[in-house]
């Protein structure tokens, strides 16, 4: 970037950012005062979602940011501009949305948006350089598996170890960290079997190991509402913004969010390389997509509450069905990672559950903080997987629902259902799928925000059709 016309120091998320030649960039749309205002207070999740990056336009008073479609920006003199010069390098809508993401992903300082979650994955791996080693959870999203094993391993000699990081003890994890291990990759919960990682434990192992690998957590399934991985020790959080953050199934986008790096030269160098690659590769979202996703993010907290409440009720219905062999939902008391799910909740999600859900629905007598998970379950995002006896049972269920649309993806306001083995995870070899529990009878649900009684009827009627199958 060329130096800015404004030579005064500005603050971005509480830290001074300097342009080349010791000059400083100027942020548009009142970003300086807006950032200070929101960082200086203890505003809640929904307040930050609505206001950060959405200051009224100083020239028109417009409450909602306009869409800046311009690809280039006027300069007062060669190299002297107002913070923007070419839209691939930066754009007002993208900058506003990145600031919003950094504010709601607790512990975040900087965010970078990309044209998709897969593009964000690609840039992270490229930033590791050639010949690096990644230790990755074995039950990982099919697109991540594909990039690590079939792209990066071929074009940059990436070495990948897939390990059960949910159950592996500390000694096993340490043994699998090599001298050239640059990154540990987690999903929590995993897709599609909803296995839950102890992020704090893995972070402690990573940061105390002589190789000092960075820890990345894909937080797509829980969103910034239910989980705050940066506060648990993660160095990078990845989101497919296509899913819950946007929430309306009309934008494809990804993001990386990172914590302050002033005390970590390693993290600062990595962050700088990510920002460089974002511009150099051009894997960026359009201004319109950023505007749409920012609009969607304003209601993220409200939507995630309803997703979670609906999913908990659907999970209970599935558990009560004799045709269902297993229900995978960490918010169910029967789940073997139930305590960890409670422990890993973000502070704002737990506060909502304790002060609203438990008092209203479970008749708890006190809103005081609970050290132990409550009896009866609690909302834990909107994703559920469950097992039916055979592939034919799964197909019957998936083709019998009225409100659950058979489709890939997740996190939209509408309910979706899919068959991982033949859809999202078909690219993983069958032997590996079977070992991970991605069986022919596994069904994944993304529970939407419709009236839950209607969803219950839809699920029950589809299960009844499954129960009538004869072989």
C-alpha termini separation: 67 Å
Which regions contain 5 or more consecutive residues with pLDDT less than 50? 1-38, 363-367
The radius of gyration is 23 Å
Strand content: 5-15%
Taking the sheet with the most strands, its summary is:
7 strands, mixed
> Mean pLDDT, nearest integer?
90
| Large-scale geometry | globular
Please tell me about this protein's structure:
The protein has 16 helices and 14 strands. The strands form three sheets. A seven-stranded mixed β-sheet has the order 3-9-8-7-6-4-5, with helices on both faces. The protein has 471 residues and is of the alpha/beta class. Helix 2 (45-51) packs antiparallel against helix 3, helix 3 packs parallel to helix 10 and helix 4 (117-127) crosses helix 9. Helix 8 links the parallel strand 7 and strand 8. The radius of gyration is 23 Å and the shape is globular. It has helices at 31-39, 45-51, 92-104, 117-127, 142-155, 170-175, 199-208, 223-226, 265-281, 287-297, 300-319, 338-344, 347-361, 391-398, 430-436, 452-467, and strands at residues 11-12, 15-16, 110-114, 133-137, 159-163, 181-187, 214-218, 236-240, 254-258, 326-328, 383-387, 405-406, 416-418, 442-446. Helices cover 37% and strands 13% of the residues. Residues 1-38 and 363-367 have low confidence and may be disordered. The longest helix has 20 residues, at 300-319.
